[in-house]
C-alpha cells in the first residue's frame, strides 16, 4: 500500500487509549489507538478495519477533521493522537499503473518449492526445472539475489539436483504455503531499493498464488514466470494465473524477463544471457495452457 501522506509520527506513548473514528468511503467505524499513536499505527488500524475494501494499487492521503476549519485537512507532519479525533483515508484519483519495468538492482528472484517429491505429480515438471535453472543462471550473471524455499523438505525432499542453488541468498524450509516468511521479509529489508519480485516454481494455485498476493500487499511488484510454474492440474494453474493477472500481477515468460533485465544489446552480459535463451527447452505446450 503506497500512501501519499505526512511523515510517520513517533510511536505510542503516555499510556492508555484514545477513541478515534476511522472513516473510509461510506464507512465510519469507532475504534481506539494507544495514546501518542502516530501515522504508522493509524495506517495499521485502517488496514485492520478496511483491508478487504482497500485497492492496493491506489494512492491514498490520510486526513484529520479540524474543528477550527470544520472540515478535513491533510494529516499534519508528526501528528500524534492525544485526544478524541476523527480521521479518514481518501483515495486519490490517479491510479498507479503497473508498468513492469525490471532492472537488476531492484529485482529479487523467488524460487518456490522445486522439490524432488513433486516430480511425478506436477505437469511439465521437467520443463519448468529447465526454465527455472536458466533463470537462476541469469540471476547469477546479473548479480540478482535469489531466495529459495522448500515445502516441508523432511517429507517432500530437497530442491531437485538439476537446479543449481550456488550463490542463493537464502534457502529456507517452510510449512506455510506462502514464501513470505519472517526470514524472507528480513532479507528483503536488507536489500536496498527492492521493487520487483520474479516468482516461479510450484504449485501455481497454492504457494505461488499465496506468495504473490502477500507480496503485492506489501507494495512490491510481482512478475510470475508462466513457463516456470505449474500445478498438478492445468485447470488450477490456468485459473490461478487469470486471477493473479486481474490483481495487477504481471504474468510473463522467462525470455521476456531475461531480455528486459539486460535491456540493451550492448549490455556486458548480453551474449551470455543470449546463450541461455538459445538453450531453450523444446515447446511443451505449457504456455498454451496459460
Describe the structure.
It comes from Tychaedon coryphoeus (Karoo scrub-robin). Residues 1-13 have low confidence and may be disordered. The radius of gyration is 22 Å and the shape is elongated. Helices cover 30% and strands 27% of the residues. Strand 8 (146-151), helix 3 (153-156) and strand 9 form a beta-alpha-beta unit. The protein is an alpha/beta fold. The protein folds into two domains: 17-91, Roll (Ubiquitin-like (UB roll)); 104-277, Isochorismatase-like (Rossmann fold, 3-Layer(aba) Sandwich). It contains eight helices and twelve strands. The strands form two sheets. Strands 1, 2, 3, 4, 5 and 6 form a six-stranded mixed β-sheet that branches.
Compile the SSE list and pairings.
Blueprint: E1 2-3, E2 17-24, E3 27-34, H1 39-50, E4 58-66, E5 71-74, E6 85-95, E7 107-112, H2 125-142, E8 146-151, H3 153-156, E9 170-174, H4 182-190, E10 196-202, H5 204-217, E11 221-230, H6 234-246, E12 250-252, H7 254-262, H8 270-278
Parallel strand pairs: 1-4, 2-6, 7-8, 7-10, 8-9, 10-11, 11-12
Antiparallel strand pairs: 2-3, 4-5, 4-6
Helix pairs in contact: 2-7, 2-8, 5-6, 7-8
Amino acid at each position: 500500500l503506497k500512501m501519499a501522506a505526512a511523515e510517520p509520527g513517533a510511536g505510542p506513548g503516555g499510556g492508555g487509549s484514545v477513541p478515534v473514528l476511522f472513516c473510509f468511503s461510506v464507512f465510519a467505524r469507532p475504534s481506539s489507538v494507544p495514546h501518542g499513536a502516530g501515522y504508522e499505527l493509524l495506517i495499521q488500524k485502517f488496514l485492520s478495519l478496511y483491508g478487504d475494501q482497500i485497492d492496493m494499487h491506489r494512492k491514498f492521503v490520510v486526513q484529520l477533521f479540524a474543528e477550527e476549519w470544520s472540515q478535513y485537512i491533510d494529516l499534519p507532519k508528526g501528528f500524534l493522537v492525544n485526544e478524541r479525533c476523527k480521521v479518514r483515508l481518501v483515495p486519490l484519483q490517479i491510479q498507479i499503473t503497473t508498468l513492469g519495468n525490471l532492472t537488476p538492482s531492484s529485482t529479487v528472484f523467488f524460487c518456490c518449492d522445486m522439490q524432488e517429491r513433486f516430480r511425478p505429480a506436477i505437469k511439465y515438471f521437467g520443463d519448468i526445472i529447465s526454465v527455472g535453472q536458466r533463470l537462476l543462471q541469469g540471476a547469477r550473471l546479473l548479480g540478482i539475489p535469489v531466495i529459495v524455499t522448500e515445502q516441508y523438505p523432511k517429507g517432500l525432499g530437497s530442491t531437485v539436483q538439476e537446479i543449481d542453488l550456488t550463490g542463493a541468498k537464502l534457502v529456507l524450509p517452510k510449512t506455510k504455503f506462502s514464501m513470505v516468511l519472517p526470514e524472507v521479509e528480513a532479507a528483503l529489508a536488507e536489500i536496498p531499493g527492492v521493487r520487483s519480485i520474479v516468482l516461479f516454481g510450484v504449485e501455481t494455485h497454492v504457494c505461488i498464488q499465496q506468495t504473490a498476493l502477500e507480496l503485492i500487499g506489501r507494495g512490491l511488484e510481482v512478475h510470475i514466470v508462466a513457463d516456470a510454474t505449474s500445478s498438478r492440474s492445468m485447470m488450477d494453474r490456468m485459473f490461478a494465473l487469470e486471477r493473479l493477472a486481474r490483481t495487477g500481477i504481471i504474468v510473463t515468460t522467462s525470455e521476456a524477463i531475461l531480455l528486459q533485465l539486460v535491456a540493451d544489446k550492448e549490455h556486458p552480459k548480453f551474449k551470455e544471457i543470449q546463450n541461455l535463451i538459445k538453450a531453450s527447452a523444446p515447446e511443451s505446450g505449457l504456455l498454451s495452457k496459460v
